[in-house]
Design brief:
By secondary structure, this protein is mostly beta strands. It contains three helices and twelve strands, in the order E-E-E-H-E-H-E-E-E-E-H-E-E-E-E. It has a six-stranded antiparallel beta barrel with strand order 1-2-11-10-7-12. A four-stranded antiparallel beta sheet has the order 5-4-3-6. Strand 1 and strand 2 form a beta hairpin. The longest helix is centred in the N-terminal third of the chain and has 6 residues, at 62-67. The mean pLDDT is 89.
């Protein structure tokens, strides 16, 4: 069985020292163990994949508990991931961090921090208006947002103030520095989307959303 990813939770950042003395900034992720809760098959679903459960819980709603009855355990998070071959996959099977090894290239998907309603200076790095006489309270204003008669409207996609952050982001091409199977920890070089305790999906490069 070759599942191409796992579910984890971002812990935080730290330093990792290589054997030659070089140090890297790494992000620690609590990965798995995940349990196979559902198998999607070509003849019934039109494609092949597996659904993994992460973070066991004591109780769920009846529909959710009924869905997980075959797995024999209830989970807070469920995610679907691709797989090469489902012939040797069984419901209830456990998958842990040993799926990844040092040197692997991975892509990590998570939700970035929410910034609420932000103006153009913060959201799009606008420089603002001139700080001269007569510009009171206009330093961070957006200015003109379009022409007059032609086209006579605001074009779609114009960069303006609005909701910033809290969006799904995938960081690609990250290097696995260490895989700690005893503690189910994965140390990845570079930044990972989201705040601490954010749920993340770690996939091998080339599989899943990019």
């Amino acid at each position: 069985m070759t599942i191409h990813g796992l579910i984890g939770k971002k812990i935080g950042t730290t330093q990792f020292f290589r054997e030659d003395g070089r140090s890297d900034c790494v992000t620690a992720i609590q990965v798995g163990p995940c349990t196979v809760t559902q198998i999607k098959r070509q003849d019934t679903d039109g494609y092949e994949s597996v659904q993994l459960g992460y973070e066991p819980v004591g109780s769920l709603t009846k529909p959710e508990a009924g869905h997980l009855k075959a797995a024999g355990q209830l989970f807070r998070h469920l995610r679907e991931l691709s797989v090469d071959d489902i012939s040797d996959v069984e419901i209830g099977q456990s998958v842990d961090v040993s799926l990844f090894e040092a040197g692997d290239r991975v892509q990590v998907t998570g939700n970035i921090k929410g910034r609420g309603f932000a103006g153009g200076v913060k959201r799009h790095n606008f420089k603002g208006g001139p700080k001269t006489h007569g510009q009171s309270d206009r330093h961070r204003a957006p200015g003109s947002i379009g022409a007059g008669t032609t086209p006579g409207r605001v074009l779609k996609g114009l960069r303006m103030a609005g909701h910033m952050g809290n969006a799904q982001v995938t960081q690609r091409g990250l290097e696995v520095i260490q895989s700690d199977t005893d503690r189910n920890l994965l140390f990845i070089k570079g930044s990972i989307p989201g705040a601490r305790n954010t749920l993340v999906i770690i996939r091998k490069m080339g599989y899943g959303r990019s």
